């Protein structure tokens, strides 16, 4: 990896984290619930977007370097597995076992399905 590509990935990661912060705040201000909807929506939309990026790259519609900046950088900063894990553990600690199972399973299944759909759409062109 070249230094300029590395720096672009770093900047894109910071931008992705900033966008995640804003999206999280907007969703939390509109949806008042203990269930981690903001993190779920962010991770599912990020998985879909990553699927699109990978699909477009495999279809030679997107340069691999651009895919690295978008996928590893921006979307790596945007999505957040660690927050999802923490929020699910917090639900368990609050003895909200059903909500924790729904959170964990819903996020995993939805994220994988969204990534698959994005991959299919991205490579369909």
UniProtKB/TrEMBL annotation:
It is found in: Cell membrane. GO terms for biological process: cellular detoxification of fluoride. The keyword Ion transport applies. It catalyses: fluoride(in) = fluoride(out). GO terms for cellular component: plasma membrane. Its main location: membrane. Pfam families: CRCB. GO terms for molecular function: fluoride channel activity; metal ion binding. InterPro entries: FluC. Na(+) is not transported, but it plays an essential structural role and its presence is essential for fluoride channel function. Belongs to the fluoride channel Fluc/FEX (TC 1.A.43) family. This is Fluoride-specific ion channel FluC. It comes from Agromyces fucosus.
């Amino acid at each position: 990896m070249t230094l300029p590509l590395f720096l672009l990935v770093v900047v894109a990661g910071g931008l992705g984290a900033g966008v995640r912060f804003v999206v999280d705040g907007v969703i939390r201000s509109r949806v008042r619930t203990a269930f981690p909807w903001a993190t779920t929506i962010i991770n599912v939309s990020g998985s879909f977007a990553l699927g699109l990026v990978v699909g477009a790259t495999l279809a030679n519609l997107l340069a691999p370097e651009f895919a690295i900046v978008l996928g590893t950088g921006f979307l790596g900063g945007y999505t957040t597995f660690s927050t999802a894990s923490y929020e699910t553990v917090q639900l368990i600690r609050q003895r909200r076992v059903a909500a924790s199972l729904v959170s964990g399973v819903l996020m995993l299944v939805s994220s994988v399905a969204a990534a698959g759909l994005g991959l299919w759409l991205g490579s369909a062109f």
